[in-house]
C-alpha cells in the first residue's frame, strides 16, 4: 500500500514541479471499428461537419513512445467533413505540447488536420501536410489561419512518424517537430515554425477533415506542458509484463461504469484506490464492465491483473 501511495504522491509532486501530462489517449476503445465519437464514449466530440472521423482497431508503434501499440487508432480523409476534439484542463499561459503517431497513405496540395483549440473556434498550432511534387510529404504548421509554413525535409508515405507540435500561449509561437524515431529531448531546431500576435487559452486537441488534407492514421495522442511529460513520461502505466491489448473506456467517466477488456477472455481482478491509498473497489470482472457507481468524483488508481500480467491506470470519475 505504501508503494502505491508513493507512486500516486510522486506523480502529483512531479506534475506540480515539472509540468503535467494533460491528456493521454491510446485509442483503447475496443475491438469494433466505427464512428470515433460514439465508440470513444464521448471522449471525442464533434465541433463541425457530419461525415465521421473513424476508429480503427489497428494501432501504430514506435519504440520508447509511451503511447505506442496500445488499442486502436483514428483515421481521417479529405472526402469526409467531420472535425472532432478531446478536451483537457484549460491552459492560460506557458507552452502546450501535443503529440501523436501519424502514418500518411496519400497526400494532396496541403491543408491542416491536427491542432489545438479553445472552448470556441480559436485554433492554434495547425499541423498540416502536402505533396512535395515528387510523391513525398512536406509537413507544416500554421498559427491562426490555414496558411501554413512548411518545412523542407521530404518524408515518406506509409511510414509512422512521431509528430510533436507546441504552442506558447504568451508569445504566439508555434513549433513543429517530425521524428522518425523517439527522442527523449526536444530537438534544437524545429521542422517548421509560425508565430501570431493573437494568443489564446487552449483546452482541446482536434482532428480536422477537409479537402486536401492527407489520408492518415493517427494514434497515441498526448498533451502536456513540457516535452518530457508529453513525449517521454507515462501516466501511471507500467509496461513490464503488461496486459496485452488492454482497453479502458470511457475514461473520464460519469456513467457509473467503465468498460475494460484485453486480448484474453480470462477474468480480471480489479483493485481501485483513492488518492490516500485506500482500496475502494476489489472485484472480479467477468463481463468486461466494472461498476464504479459508488465512487465519488475524483482521481483514482486502478490496478488490473489477468493471467500472469497486470496494468495500472489512472481512473477519473466525473
From TrEMBL:
<feature type="domain" description="Secretion system C-terminal sorting">
    <location>
        <begin position="248"/>
        <end position="317"/>
    </location>
</feature>
<protein>
    <submittedName>
        <fullName>T9SS type A sorting domain-containing protein</fullName>
    </submittedName>
</protein>
<keyword id="KW-0732">Signal</keyword>
<feature type="signal peptide">
    <location>
        <begin position="1"/>
        <end position="19"/>
    </location>
</feature>
<dbReference type="InterPro" id="IPR026444">
    <property type="entry name" value="Secre_tail"/>
</dbReference>
<dbReference type="Pfam" id="PF18962">
    <property type="entry name" value="Por_Secre_tail"/>
</dbReference>
Amino acid at each position: 500500500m505504501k508503494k502505491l501511495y508513493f507512486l500516486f504522491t510522486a506523480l502529483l509532486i512531479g506534475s506540480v514541479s515539472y509540468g503535467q501530462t494533460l491528456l493521454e489517449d491510446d485509442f483503447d476503445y475496443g475491438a469494433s471499428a466505427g464512428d470515433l465519437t460514439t465508440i470513444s464514449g464521448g471522449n471525442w466530440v464533434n465541433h463541425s461537419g457530419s461525415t465521421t472521423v473513424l476508429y480503427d482497431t489497428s494501432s501504430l508503434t514506435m519504440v520508447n513512445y509511451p503511447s505506442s501499440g496500445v488499442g486502436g487508432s483514428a483515421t481521417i480523409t479529405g472526402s469526409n467533413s467531420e472535425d472532432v476534439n478531446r478536451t483537457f484542463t484549460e491552459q492560460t499561459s506557458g507552452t502546450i505540447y501535443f503529440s501523436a503517431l501519424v502514418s500518411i497513405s496519400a497526400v494532396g496540395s496541403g491543408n491542416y488536420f491536427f491542432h489545438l483549440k479553445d472552448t470556441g473556434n480559436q485554433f492554434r498550432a495547425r499541423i498540416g501536410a502536402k505533396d512535395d511534387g515528387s510523391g513525398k510529404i512536406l509537413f507544416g504548421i500554421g498559427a491562426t489561419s490555414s496558411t501554413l509554413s512548411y518545412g523542407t525535409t521530404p518524408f515518406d508515405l506509409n511510414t509512422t512518424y512521431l509528430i510533436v507540435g507546441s504552442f506558447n500561449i504568451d508569445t504566439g509561437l508555434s513549433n513543429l517537430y517530425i521524428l522518425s524515431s523517439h527522442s527523449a529531448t526536444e530537438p534544437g531546431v524545429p521542422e517548421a515554425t509560425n508565430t501570431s500576435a493573437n494568443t489564446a487559452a487552449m483546452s482541446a486537441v482536434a482532428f480536422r477533415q477537409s479537402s486536401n488534407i492527407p489520408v492518415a492514421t493517427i494514434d497515441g495522442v498526448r498533451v502536456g506542458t513540457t516535452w518530457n511529460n508529453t513525449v517521454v513520461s507515462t501516466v501511471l502505466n507500467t509496461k513490464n509484463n503488461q496486459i496485452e491489448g488492454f482497453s479502458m473506456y470511457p475514461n473520464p467517466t460519469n456513467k457509473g461504469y467503465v468498460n475494460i477488456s484485453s486480448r484474453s477472455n480470462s477474468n480480471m481482478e480489479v483493485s481501485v484506490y483513492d488518492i490516500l491509498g485506500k482500496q475502494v473497489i476489489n472485484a472480479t470482472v467477468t463481463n468486461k464492465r466494472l461498476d464504479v457507481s459508488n465512487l465519488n468524483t475524483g482521481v483514482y488508481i486502478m490496478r488490473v491483473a489477468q493471467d500472469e500480467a497486470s496494468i495500472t491506470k489512472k481512473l477519473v470519475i466525473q
